[in-house]
TrEMBL record:
Membrane-spanning intervals of the chain: 12-31, 37-61, 73-98, 110-128, 230-253
Species this protein is from: Litoreibacter arenae DSM 19593
Name recorded for this polypeptide: Alkane-1 monooxygenase
GO CC annotations on file: plasma membrane
EC numbers for this chain: 1.14.15.3
Record keyword rRNA processing present: no
Amino acid sequence: MATLSSSEVSKFSAAVPFWLSLLMIPLALIGATQGGWWLVLLPLYGWGMFSVLDAIIGLNLDNADLETTEDDLFWYRVITMMWFPLQFVLIFGMIAYATRADHLSGWEQIALFFGVGVISGTIGINYSHELMHQKNKLERWLGDLLLASVLYSHFRSEHLLVHHRYVGTPKDPVTARYNEGFHRFFPRVLRESLVSSWRAEKAMLARKGLPATDLSNPFWRYWALQAGMLILAFLIGGWAGLGLFVFQAYVAIWQLELVNYVEHYGLTRKHLGDGKYEHVQPRHSWNAAHKASNWLLINLQRHSDHHYKPDRRFPLLQNYTEEDAPQLPYGYPVMTLAAMVPPVYRRIMNPRVRKWRAMYYPEITDWAPYKAATNPMPR
């Protein structure tokens, strides 16, 4: 495992692979103008090509020097900050085009916006995740705008106030339970994450002596931004445009929650008694060092380090060895496809979870409360 110096990290050539997401935009334009089988280009690019590249290129085990400055990361920050205007124009431009294109059938329009949802989910929500963790107000606002464009603004509150604090405990809706298939996880997390994010913001306001209805509650901003997006979609494309906008948002949310499902499946923090849990450690996240998919997902697969240092920018996220953190056999593109077929996913992952339990918690003999999430809620 090598350490890359600040001068190596700061080179434009080192940042360029993380710009591969930009190629999804011309693929969307080709699909829209040509229709037919050209519409499969986007899903094939997002899942197929990067899975193949992972198999060919292999792993990246190198780490960037943590003394690398913000100025050295300019070319990495640019891609995340420029993404919202690009995605905004893409979504609403596609609505304007598709609802007036005679060569696109109804099914082709749906297929096109499935691809748009792949972009706004795989790239847009992922970039919003990077932006929401930063201290810069402009970046946080861009993160909010990206989430509003997929009608999932409360993800910011849920992620920052609930997930990072309670990951691996019964209080975190996003931690997928052992043996819980994705098709059970998905509706559960949609329901519970909305409730938990609202409660977290309400509790934070209560500590300040303010009611949940206070205008400082970010949910007012969330609702206003989402309403603005819905109104704009309707004004541009009528009811068809509104339907296509909502559909791409659904696809994007599905993409996000597939990744959430994979990131912590079956991993739990040890209950120490009286609602106390051990601190979050690298062992509580699944990691993948696959080079190509980490380019596409801006190092999201270095997930243990993200939980250790949430505001660490993606080029500086550190890789962990198999001795320190559990590793996935494939990158997220393959793992999320496997998650759509629960028997396949369980066959791949359940033995790894059992190995993880034996490795880190040999003293725990009854895993039933962890599996069913019936341990006491953390204090």
